[in-house]
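Example with several molecule types.
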Amino acid sequence: MSRLLLARLTVPALAALFAVWSPPVAPAGAATGAETFGSVCAACHTIGGGKRVGPDLAGVNDRRPAEWLLKFIRSSQALVESGDPVAVALFAEHKVAMPDFPYSDSEIREILEFVKRGGAGGAAQPPAAAALRTTTPEDVRKGLELFQGTLRFANRGPACNSCHHVNNDAVIGGGILAKELTTVFGQMGGPGVQAILGKPPFPVMDQAFASRPLTEDEIFALVAFLQDADQHQQFQKPRDYGFKLFTSGLAGLVFLLALYGLFWRRRKVHPVNHAIFARQVRTQ
Amino acid sequence: MSLPHLFLFVGLPYAAILLFLVGTVQRYRNTGFKVSSLSSQFLEGRALFWGAVPFHFGILVVLLGHLIAFLLPGGTLLWNSSPVRLIVLEVTAFTFGLSTFVGLVALLVRRFTNPRVKMVTTRMDVALELLLLAQVVLGLWIALGYRWGSSWFAADLSPYLMSLFTFDPNITAVSAMPLVIQLHIIGAWLLIAIFPQTRLVHMLVAPLHYLARPYQRVIWNWDRAAIRNPETPWSEMRPKNN
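Resulting structure tokens for the full complex:
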């Protein structure tokens, strides 16, 4: 085996070794079915408590075959795209795509077993969230400020507009890493949005707030703002930040190139000390 | 959390850091005088200026930005809590990203079109510059296509990197990121892995002391007769090294 081939194989071989011997990675599958349901599924589903963001899961083991449930939980959208009539109907009814959950068969079966027991032996519902009281303009204002970060979360989590956009004149263009939230209140309803904010079922959002959870008051204010944003969306015409960001960058680039040229255009002339040069020429 | 994710976001980073450390020490011990960028400025200067200057200023600012968001995620989020500051930061970062891109493209064109530079180009130079180009393009794509990256980097990627350095890897968030961002992360680890085998090693021997050293003093012995006269005192500075 040539040295070159050895060198080429070094990175993948070392990486494989480290992957196998690396310290234990925060496991998604180590939790029991009850724990997984409580920490992930309960944000959107109940067992016998009625519809939340997704359907009530009481009796789901009787309604659907186990194999279908395994496929749907692992990637609901893959099933929708394959044209599965039940998946398409569910998506049409609930209008929200369930995120993919890369659990193993045994992990999913544990969750389904927990659902079959009717949620016995675990917290099937998310922790008590603030009861939805009547919202006031102050709540909406506070939610708006929390959303774009001008008012920081008590636990110092990232502002919502880091990843989410809302079509609203009062906030700057939000991020586009995650779903646009202009109509999320209309799609999920107050309790659904509240449940997701309290216990995000999406890995990226969950990790961002894992050590910095939102308080109940903050969740309430955000729900109030999202409700207001949904109701008034047709009157909003915010700026298009995507194109502006690009053109501003181009303008900045032209400025930088001009600066580089100005500073160094005569760089080979400046190092010469003209006084000494002239003196030398005079004496020769 | 699949095996490929474990391989790419845990195994690859540790392998890359190990290769970086071992490879750098080995290269310095074996061929210490070749730890440099092997400048080609004597072969061609004009195109180099419009490549190297925009590239280096761009990459320095962009790298510093990544480093600050990694080491000070709380400070980054605090800075971004004002929309104006967020936009200023993002536009500045994007501008310097574009500067990096323009400079790198100019350097690549010079490398492939100038016969003198072509003669001193190695296969590793080409591989490195293409990998860098892919990284810069992906970075610009992320800045526009997944905007406010400084905020979500501080919230999700800084904890991921920190978890690697504390030997408690957590790849939950990074495994769920869009493919473009994942490719940018993988590219960064690959760059660290090949670092010691490339011209990038010049980063470690950058002549930073030039910034603080005194100006070079040139003594021109224009009046030789006066200097040869033993009566003439050393006026200002006694010459050294001669």
